[in-house]
Design goal:
Helix content is 40%, strand content 13%. By secondary structure, it is of the alpha+beta class. The strands form three sheets. A six-stranded antiparallel β-sheet has the order 5-6-8-7-9-10, sandwiched between helices. Strands 1-2 form a two-stranded parallel sheet. The protein has a two-stranded parallel ribbon with strand order 3-4.
Amino acid sequence: MISGGLDSLLAVAVLAKQGIDLLGVHFLNGFTPENLRRRVNGLVSMDDIAEKRGMALSGLLGIPVRAIDISADFLSVMKDPPHGFGKNVNPCIDCRIFLLRKAAEIMRAEDYDFIFTGEVLGQRPMSQHLIAMRSVEKESGLTGRLLRPLCAKLLKPTEMEEKGLVDRKMLLDIQGRSRKRQMKLAEELGVEGYGAPAGGCALTDINYARKYIDHIEHSGGRDLSVRDTVLFSTGRHLRLSGSIKIVVGRKQEENEYFEAEWTDHYLAMTPDVPGPTVVVLGDPGPDDFPVIAAVTARYSDGKNEKTVRVDIVRGEEKMEFEVPPASEEDIALWRI
């Protein structure tokens, strides 16, 4: 399993040095900040992202790498992770189990011998301590067939090492959060092209988590979709009531994304002055539309005017409002 970070690059290099035939698998769960930005800013599909990512990683690693979109399937983990969330809404242990089960399907279907990862003992507090790593191996159905080359000498020997498929003496004993040993090893092995260490998951971000939690609390998780998870990475989110939320575009790319991907919902815009496109979520009634218009006006260039014209459209339906911009006090109450 290949993330593309330094650790997975080193794991490939350590095993390739033994002459082992390797296949890289890179799973796209939909929550990588870079990919979320690409979905919004460039209106890029997950299929396009997967194709380009697979090609880039194959070139970087010198082995074939398949990038596979699992974003829709991964939502089942987000709705009810048996091991719970981390500090925000990151189900790290259940994510690891889910990904390894996916990799195991490929391993068994194509007659590979084992799965390897770039995990380092003690590097991540939730998912890479000894108890968690043992639990992940067992629950993913990979007992004895999951190799962690960078810290293998700190763990019980796997079946592959005992059978001689992998030379344990050539594996490593790296542990902890420091990357000094990895960077030194990269220099020794000639590994290049890796980026700076990073969390790499929007689910660990407190701002993203707030939007996710608000959605779950007000929908019971019944309506969680991949499109929702992209929306959480955009705009200013305001909860106007238990049933109505709006998302205000912060820049032109977000406005264009809303106008391309959310036309099945009401969209609010200010035709006479520059302003945001606003997505309306829920089932607004007659009393809600003037409030939505007022918020839209507040974030437009007409926010200091007495009134601003706001159009709210959905398909062929169109409503026009002339409203005073919402107050800062109201915005503060509604902001998620």
